Amino acid sequence: MTTEETPLLQNSHDAVYDRFPSGRKKVLVFIVSLGALVTFFTSGTFIPTIPQIVEELDSTKEVIRPYQRRSYAVGVYMLANAVGSLVAARYSSFYGRRPIYLWWFPVMIIGSIGVANAQSVMSLMVWRFIQAAGSSPGLSVGAGVIGDIYKLEERGTALGIYLCTSLLGYALAPTIGGVMAYYWSWRAIHVSIAAFCCAVLVSIVFFFPETIHPGTKGLDRCERSGRVPSKVWPVMLNPLEQLALLRSPNILVAAFLNYTGMLTDFALLVPLPYTIVRITRVPRTYQPLITLQPPHSRVNATELRTKRCWERAFSLLDWAKQVNVLFLHKQGAPITHIDPVGAPLAGWISDKVVVKYKKKRGYWYPEDRLRASMFSCYLPLCVLGSALITKYVPGRLGLTLNLICLFLNGVGCDIALTPYGTYVVDILHSKSAEVTAAVNTFRMIAVAGSTAVMLPMIDAYGYLFTSFVVAMVATAGLGLTIVMIAHGEAMRRWMDVGFSTAENN
């Protein structure tokens, strides 16, 4: 190919990203971010309201049963999100991004109304599954939209902002959910979610055009080949097909790194009541009672064995405040905005790294973006440090030091995840939604399995040993990042699943 033709092809490809002006792109990012915000907000508001749900729907069960209900409800939500994300991503490449949002948000609205009106645990689980499935495009299709409208050198910053806005869902969920559940009801939360989804759906109808590149939809290819799909029934596609992308070592390592980043997050968050109990020296025997009762609940006298336990129970509001402080700092809530800061910062850094090394090398090397994730190399120390502090440093000093660990882990987790999320979109640009869904599915299944064994492992071997294991897994992820940066091109040659090139990215 001559040198005169190369700039022409490059300019022709760049024109695809110039379809929308800068201001319009920001509006599109804002809309898809709202979709992801709903996903995270819906997940984050459920856990703080579990005591109220248990009291209303399952009040005759013994104290230990709420933990099991919590596992089922959270597991159902994660399963539905994983399945829904795969389905939405697969069909978004065939029909386009806009139709998926128009189909899925009504499902989310119906599911939220169903959850708000649930009268039994079983009906709650069913509607919770529908609600989660309806919110799932925010996890995969949103990343595909950003890959559609932003060039390689701008994509990291845009995805960082997208993740930043999305994380506000987790940031706001404990505060808003707790306040609404306290003054109104847990049902009011889901009615509000349905109303918010209606507003987002209206914005999609009027302000969200199709973003997928012209002529690249599966529907377009069918029409060019002379096959006209039915306009009544959707084409039957296999959503599990995109999981085959994980056979690529690069995609599998990216998924594993997403998992290890989230694992450090959950390693600090899941045993949070245990951590507070150890720091404040509350007898562990009474931990389930203390952590499951809301501030305004009455405590059954038969479950309190000594007068000292009564005194502990009546000081429940103070404990709730301490738990809420940890949630606020961990999730980047209005006090500090910790987590959302890390995502756009990491995205911006990764773009700068790509531009710098592309200029230095004279060609695009996708794994250069992963250099930005190395700034999160301290994550294992946060997990291990929190465990050591919990074991050896009591009182306010221990609580303060744990907050510092939570702060650093929140920022580091985003610094680790954002470059990898952008990386998989870079190397499989034509399948950006599908590869994002595959990576997210791997992460959710792995995290669900890990969190299921985390508390039993703490009971059997102790919090310090469990944290050490998590830290070692995170360290292994750091090592794989170094391997990817050094040998990414060779790994892509081992299993080519249709990787993008500089000419088509």
UniProtKB/TrEMBL annotation:
UniProt domain Major facilitator superfamily (MFS) profile: residue ranges: 28-489
GO cellular component: plasma membrane
Subcellular location per the Swiss-Prot or TrEMBL entry: Membrane
GO molecular function: transmembrane transporter activity
Transmembrane segments annotated in the record for this chain: 27-50, 70-89, 101-119, 159-183, 189-208, 401-425, 464-486
Alphabetic keyword roster: Membrane, Transmembrane, Transmembrane helix
InterPro entries membership: MFS (IPR011701), MFS_dom (IPR020846), MFS_trans_sf (IPR036259)
Pfam families with a match to the protein in the record: MFS_1 (PF07690)
Membrane topology type: Multi-pass membrane protein
Listed name of the protein: Major facilitator superfamily (MFS) profile domain-containing protein
Organism listed in the record: Leucocoprinus leucothites
Classification lineage: Eukaryota, Fungi, Dikarya, Basidiomycota, Agaricomycotina
